[in-house]
Amino acid sequence: MTPASDGRLRPVEHYENFPVASWLCPPRLRRPVAAIYWFARTADDIADEGDAPAAQRLADLESYRSDLQACLGGRSDSGRWPAVFPALRSAVDAFALPAQPLTRLLDAFEQDVHKTAAGAGYADRNELLAYCSRSADPVGRLLLHLYGVDDAAALAQSDAICSALQLVNFWQDLGVDVPRGRYYLPAEDCRRFGIDPDAPQTWAAHPRAPELVQALCAWTRDLMLAGAPLVHRVPGRAGWELRLVVQGGLRVLRRIERLHFRTFQQRPRLGPSDGPAMLWRAARM
């Protein structure tokens, strides 16, 4: 579903491997979690969906940022996104959501527009993780705020999980992203496997592309496992939700492995048959 101009929710062609505000989420947190999700989802759509030129996308994101500032400041917004900001304002008022993670998400979406317009990629893993610190990690930090968990160790583990989930999405979506001018393969890693980082049109057919994807998946798995102990810090049903999110990410990596890391040609998907294995592994964490 996605917010429409009239404020109602409408279907959109977004495939999500990871649940949002599911039945495992504590009932009192479902509305703020959904508000955070729709804020991020809508901004991501502004940056990525449709045929608008880069200048229009950036102008729309600037308007969106202005409405966010109005929301955070207790002022009236433009009314342009009625499915987003009233709910977000309620969450801000009820839970004192911090401003920085929300604004950092918008920084990331603006970066997406600039990178895509320039046909630019990422130099190395550190630069890619710096992007994830704006595009993914803020969501985890906002959720931890809702759960009342805010120590440095927990925040670092949340960042590891969120960055890993973002990277999983990158590696599963190579066949979709590269033709659209979204380049997330780090140039340094490409060169390690003899792949020209400046010739994305050659990546899919390169004989060592699966080796590159395999190396990046191994790095991503290690990052996910580094953050996994956080599941024991998040209380109650939310902790079980997080266990399934972690196991969902790891399951996608296993699906990529079963495809022999050929995600330029085929996109992995989770289905009902993956549920029992994820539940079993979640229980063993």
TrEMBL record:
It comes from Ramlibacter alkalitolerans. Its EC number is 2.5.1.21. This is Squalene synthase HpnC. Keywords: Transferase. NCBIfam families: HpnC. InterPro entries: HSQ_synthase_HpnC, Isoprenoid_synthase_dom_sf, Squ/phyt_synthse, Trans_IPPS_bact-type, Trans_IPPS_HH. Pfam families: SQS_PSY. One of its GO terms (molecular function) is squalene synthase [NAD(P)H] activity. Gene3D superfamilies: Farnesyl Diphosphate Synthase (1.10.600.10). Transmembrane segments: none annotated. The lineage of its organism: Bacteria, Pseudomonadati, Pseudomonadota, Betaproteobacteria, Burkholderiales.
